[in-house]
Amino acid sequence: MHIRIINPNTTASMTAAIHQAAQQQAGTGTTVSASQPDAGPVSIESHFDEVISAVGVAEEVLKGEREGGIDAYVVACFGDPGLLAARELTRAPVIGIAEAAFHLATLVSTRFSIVTTLGRTGIIAEHLLQQYGFSHHCRRIRAAEIPVLDLEHHPDAAFTRIVEECCRARDEDDIGAIVLGCGGMANLTQQISREVGLPVVEGVTAALKLAESLVSLGLHTSKYGDLAYPRPKTFTGKFSELSDLALPLK
Questions:
Q1: Measured distance CA(94)–CA(72) in Å, rounded
Q2: Which label site among 41, 46, 65, 108 has the fewest CB atoms less than 10 Å from its CB?
Q3: 74 within 8 A of 3, measured Cβ to Cβ
Q4: What distance lies between CA 89 and its chain's CA centroid?
Q5: Ranges of H-type helices in 26-138
Q6: H helix or E strand, kind and range, residue 18
Q7: Which of 91, 95, 89 minimizes the C-alpha distance to 229?
Q8: Residue 19: which of 3, 32, 30 has the closest Cα?
Q9: Please, what is the Cα angle at 73 between 176 and 84, to 5 degrees?
Q10: Across 203-220, average pLDDT
Q11: How far apart are CA 140 and CA 169, in angstroms?
Q12: Cα–Cα distance between 58 and 81 in angstroms, integer?
């Protein structure tokens, strides 16, 4: 099977790190490719960033559908930007890393805490917990208070701050697992787990394994109800090329 990892931001080094983390966990016979939008924010740290990046996610799914042969997509940002829109565009499963991480964390623990980058993005995570029905499983959302790109530019300092916050979660939150709240942490999971001594769930690899499972089971995104293909219509301005788009793409 072929799974496409979409990094919704435009930082190529982060896309490469996410790709590598996913490849290391892919099953035998699974091909993992990665892409990112041509335009958009270099990191996603606000509602505004998410709105802009959601357009890029949709464009990347459309590119994948034109290429053909992609069996599932992973949206590799913890805010799951554009997730439902992406599901409308394809029969292939589309998995968001926050939703995937929440599901897997509840399979290994009755309670978990989230450790994310900035405090303001914790509010976005709180909204997702409510939307997905996991609020009662999450004890606390903690922030290491590091910008996303510090994971690239100052990796040692960022790692130290994340581990410190994970240890506080372990000692203070009465939890059994930790969810890492940023796709840029994908390559840190095992190191953090060794330091903290708890199961650490990271969304990119969690989403990859869920995508593999859905493909293996022959399950696809339903085209009935609200996830049916969008109706062709006229788009104006910079989106005019989407006018009368006939899905599925041939």
A1: 6
A2: 108
A3: yes
A4: 17
A5: 47-67, 83-88, 97-108, 119-132
A6: helix 12-25
A7: 89
A8: 32
A9: 80
A10: 97
A11: 8
A12: 10
The three-point CA angle 122-137-158 to 5° equals 35
Tokens of 53: 């990046």
CA distance linking residue 23 with residue 9, whole number of Å: 19
CB atoms within 10 A of CB 55: 18
Q: Which strand (E) or helix (H) includes residue 69?
A: none
What are 135's two structure tokens? 């609020």
Contact 174, 46 (CB under 8 A): no
pLDDT at position 193 over 80? yes
pLDDT digits (tens, 9 = 90+) for 72-130: 999 999 999 999 999 999 999 999 999 999 999 999 999 999 999 999 999 999 999 99
Instruction: Tell me what the pLDDT averaged over the chain comes to.
Output: 95
Q: At what angle do helices 119-132 and 97-108 cross, to 10 degrees?
A: 70
Amino acid at 123: I
Residue type, 204: V
Region of residue 118 (phi > 0: left; psi between -120 and 50: alpha; otherwise: beta): beta
Among 124, 158, 163, residue whose Cα is nearest residue 141: 124
CA nearest neighbour of 7 among 32, 43, 31: 43
Best CA proximity match to 89, nearest among 247, 232, 206: 247
Question: To 10 degrees, what angle do helices 12-25 and 203-216 make?
Answer: 50
**C-alpha span between 57 and 157 (Å, rounded):** 30
